[in-house]
């Protein structure tokens, strides 16, 4: 996002100027120490007044309690800088170098210019992030601004990391309350810290992302930046910004009137030190954010290089699980992953995606054309454990998940082929062995999980193993790398020949979550289609729930379709016939 890039560049330029401002304060302090103690107090007050111009963004350096703070501070800096008081000529007579004063004046103008620019860039970024639409949802806006700024930092360092990955991380850390579910914050921090290799993860987050800035930001927002500047030191002090330039002037005047020029000089030195400390704090925060970005990039690369299949949990696999356990806000997914055997199955399935289906990611790496269709082909059955349909649409990467047959209904090879190719329509579906269905007639639309407000039966998917007749067909077809059809990517749940024990029966929602996780790593979106039987396979009947959610048929019903004059890949269709057609 261009607005975030511009703001990021301005913040780094602001850091450079803070160093110059501090140096100039120290130079003024040194020259004040050389001023004759008998100089006119008015002249020295003029020198103190010039500090306002030099430290126009001074107040901003004390707003660095979190990520949002320097942004708000930067917005304040431009207005405060506009309170510049002209340097008085008598100051030169008091012993201050004209060159120093000219440089101070130049710096004051630069401060005001940069401050106003940052103020506008921050507002532009907020507007682009939906500030007007979000209204009172300040946390949502802060989360998106944080994500965009981290994205700008990554681009500045030429680190290629999708915004979805950064956004998911941010929502799982300091903005976790926006997406309830999953682990509690303390346990999530522990898991994320283990995965990223950060010993004190919470401290890093506290130093790099928004924590205390929320309350401070609301106070500033309630009175307005200009109002805060006009109200003077009392308002600024009440907000808790630390040293105030108004107080600095007053104090300097008092010191000079008491012939305490040395104390006035020390005040300037202390101010310079605080500028440097504030500058360093912001720099450390930006550095910490950059470190988090690098750690996330390492996790992303770790996922792409997990190594071979294993019946045990190795160090790299554990790091991936730790990251998912810490960032996932779906309590169903987290609960399933608590079991060690499930973790091993999940990591092996992730290896299967990343290694056996590498051609998928070649497609995902292409610029543009971010949306794809993923077709999962597997043995399937339904159980009488129900879950919300929305659990199969983990936003924002999965746009929708589409189921095709009614509940308690199988599909044959023709229907599976039509689903995989994207050519099946409600109007050309047919049913064999159907004695009754509810409702009757069946709905004239497919079962979209995004549109459904009801619970659905649990769907379990089993792999095609070497014992299946279909395995040899799929294995041969897979080697041909021809299962990429226009915008559709076909993923058969196919067990590697020597790794049968590394896979098992896995819930569909875990396949969906895995697809969402990988899409997030690549910054893409997808619609998922399921080509699998949905018969109850001995599970208790639940006709009331089945009808309420979509529709159901009697036992033994099979959905098919008319494939007249359709061009079929013979090897692929043979694999589907061996898998779905009962003989």
Main attributes of the structure:
single chain, 583 residues, alpha/beta, six-stranded mixed beta sheet, 24 helices, elongated
Could you give a quick summary of the protein structure above?
This protein has 583 residues and is α/β, with parallel strands linked by helices. The protein is 56% helix and 11% strand. It has helices at 2-33, 41-54, 68-81, 90-93, 98-128, 131-134, 138-156, 163-171, 185-196, 201-208, 213-223, 225-231, 233-239, 245-257, 261-304, 315-327, 331-337, 340-356, 358-364, 413-421, 469-479, 508-522, 543-549, 570-580, and strands at 371-377, 379-388, 398-403, 410-411, 429-432, 437-438, 447-448, 455-462, 484-485, 488-492, 506-507, 525-531, 552-553, 558-561.
Q: Would you tell me the overall average pLDDT?
A: 75
Low-confidence stretches: 40-94, 210-249
Percentage of residues assigned to helices = 55-70%
Would you count the extended β strands for me? 14
Topology of this protein?
Blueprint: H1 2-33, H2 41-54, H3 68-81, H4 90-93, H5 98-128, H6 131-134, H7 138-156, H8 163-171, H9 185-196, H10 201-208, H11 213-223, H12 225-231, H13 233-239, H14 245-257, H15 261-304, H16 315-327, H17 331-337, H18 340-356, H19 358-364, E1 371-377, E2 379-388, E3 398-403, E4 410-411, H20 413-421, E5 429-432, E6 437-438, E7 447-448, E8 455-462, H21 469-479, E9 484-485, E10 488-492, E11 506-507, H22 508-522, E12 525-531, H23 543-549, E13 552-553, E14 558-561, H24 570-580
Parallel strand pairs: 1-10, 1-12, 3-12, 4-14
Antiparallel strand pairs: 2-8, 3-7, 5-14, 6-13, 8-11, 9-10
Helix pairs in contact: 1-2, 1-5, 1-7, 1-15, 2-5, 2-14, 3-5, 7-8, 9-16, 10-15, 14-15, 20-24, 21-24
């Amino acid at each position: 996002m261009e607005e975030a890039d511009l703001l990021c560049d301005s913040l780094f330029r602001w850091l450079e100027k803070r160093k110059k401002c501090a140096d100039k304060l120290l130079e003024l302090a040194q020259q004040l120490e050389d001023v004759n103690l008998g100089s006119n107090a008015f002249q020295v007050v003029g020198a103190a007044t010039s500090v306002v111009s030099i430290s126009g963004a001074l107040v901003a350096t004390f707003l660095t309690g979190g990520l949002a703070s320097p942004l708000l501070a930067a917005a304040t800096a431009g207005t405060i800088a506009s309170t510049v008081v002209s340097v008085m000529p008598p100051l030169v007579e008091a012993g201050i170098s004209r060159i120093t004063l000219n440089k101070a004046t130049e710096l004051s103008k630069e401060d005001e210019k940069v401050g106003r620019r940052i103020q506008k860039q921050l507002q532009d970024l907020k507007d682009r992030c939906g500030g007007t639409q979000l209204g009172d949802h300040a946390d949502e806006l802060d989360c998106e601004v944080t994500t965009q700024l981290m994205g700008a930092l990554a681009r500045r360092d030429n680190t290629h990391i999708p915004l979805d990955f950064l956004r998911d991380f941010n929502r799982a850390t300091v903005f976790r309350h926006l997406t309830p579910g999953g682990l509690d914050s303390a346990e999530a921090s522990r898991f994320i810290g283990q995965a990223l290799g950060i010993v004190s993860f919470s401290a890093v987050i506290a130093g790099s992302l928004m924590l205390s800035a929320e309350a401070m930001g609301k106070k500033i927002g309630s009175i307005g930046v200009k109002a805060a500047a006009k109200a003077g030191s009392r308002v600024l002090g009440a907000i808790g910004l630390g040293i105030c330039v108004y107080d600095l002037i007053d104090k300097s005047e008092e010191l000079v009137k008491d012939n305490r020029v040395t104390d006035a000089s020390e005040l300037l030195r202390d101010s310079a030190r605080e500028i440097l400390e504030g500058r360093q704090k912001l720099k450390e925060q930006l550095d910490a954010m950059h470190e988090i970005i690098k750690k996330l990039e390492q996790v992303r690369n770790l996922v792409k290089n997990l190594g071979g299949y294993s019946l045990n949990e190795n160090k790299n696999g554990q790091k991936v699980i730790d990251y998912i356990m810490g960032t996932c806000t779906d309590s169903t997914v987290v609960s399933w992953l608590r079991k060690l055997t499930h973790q091993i199955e999940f990591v092996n399935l992730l290896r299967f995606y990343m290694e056996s289906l590498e051609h998928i990611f070649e497609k995902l790496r292409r610029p543009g054309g971010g949306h794809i269709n993923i077709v999962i082909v597997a043995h399937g059955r339904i159980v009488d454990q129900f879950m919300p349909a929305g659990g199969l649409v983990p936003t924002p990467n999965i746009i929708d998940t589409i189921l095709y047959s009614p509940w308690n209904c199988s599909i044959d090879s023709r229907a599976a082929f039509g689903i995989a190719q994207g050519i099946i329509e409600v109007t050309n579906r047919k049913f064999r062995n159907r004695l009754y269905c509810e409702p009757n007639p069946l709905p004239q639309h497919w079962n979209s999980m995004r549109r459904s407000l009801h619970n659905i039966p649990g769907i379990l998917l089993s792999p095609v193993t070497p014992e299946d007749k279909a395995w040899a067909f799929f294995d041969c077809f897979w080697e041909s790398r021809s299962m990429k059809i226009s915008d559709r990517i076909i993923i058969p749940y196919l067990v590697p020949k020597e790794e049968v024990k590394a896979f098992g029966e896995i819930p569909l929602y875990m396949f969906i979550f895995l697809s969402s996780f990988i899409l997030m790593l690549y910054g893409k979106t997808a619609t998922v289609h399921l080509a699998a039987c949905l018969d109850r396979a001995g599970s208790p009947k639940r006709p009331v729930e089945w009808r309420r959610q979509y529709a159901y048929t009697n036992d033994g019903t099979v959905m098919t379709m008319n494939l007249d004059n359709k061009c079929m890949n013979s090897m692929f269709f043979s694999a589907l016939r061996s898998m779905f057609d009962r003989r």
